[in-house]
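Changelog-adjacent note: as of this version, every example in the card shows the full chain rather than a window. The one below runs 296 residues end to end.
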Amino acid sequence: MRFGVAIPNNVGLDNPQDVIDAAVRAEEMGFHSVWVSHHVLNVGYILDRIGDRPYYDATTILAYVAALTKTVRLGTSVLVLPYLNPIVLAKTLATLDVLSGGRVTAGIGVGTLRQESDALGSAFTRRGAYVNEGIAIMKELWTQDAPSFNGRFFSFSGFKFSPKPVQTPHLPVWIGGNSDAALHRAARMGDGWHADGLSPQDMASRTEQLKTHVAAAGRSMSDITLSIRQALDIRASPADDQQGPMVGTPDQILSTIGAYADLGVSEIVIGVSSHDADRICRVMEEFSTKVMPRAS
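Full-length structure tokens:
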């Protein structure tokens, strides 16, 4: 099992250095990857959670982290692709992959905040189709010497695209989300499925559905990395299951990790829900010393 950390670019920390420090410390603690969240506006549940405090840009943070780390992978959990131009995003991610020596994983999602979507001029009801086309476009640009595309939202040909990603055939694209549409998308065009907050029981049910979609798409489950993002809190005494699958004693958390591993999950991304940068690092440290060595 590999373990990643969702670094706190999205919790309203006033000092951006605290976000960067969490990523650097994650590499030092032996985590496999660091992940950033993506939104543009503080609206809906984001406004409720952080008010007018900072929500730092995902790819900008990762570029800074790339310069200060050597081995930790750099992931997005997840980029809301309907807010972005996929041609421009392909350039950004390929450049980041080159700068980092091939360490980028692109988690992609459709988004759920209609108010944010409307403000950004994105067609909320067509966001699924836009994401499907956007992923196809990025893969075309990353892999073809003479890329061309003729689609519903974009058409192009007659140019070169550079740089290409270091990773071949292209950097991994993980599909975020728990919906049936997300599972269909992961089965057809994902290199991974990045679930969010599912218990092992719910993950088992959704994984069976994914297997059906993968078979229908003529692919193998070996083509798709299974991962999940979960909130983490380590307690001295046993916690109620309703507090979350990764909330409890180290023994409870290890049991949950084993249940995910039995389903074929190969990477768990933990996040600490806190506005306290010191507490976030303390929980990361406790996980890295009391859980990770026993889970490997």
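Structural remarks: The chain has a mean pLDDT of 97.
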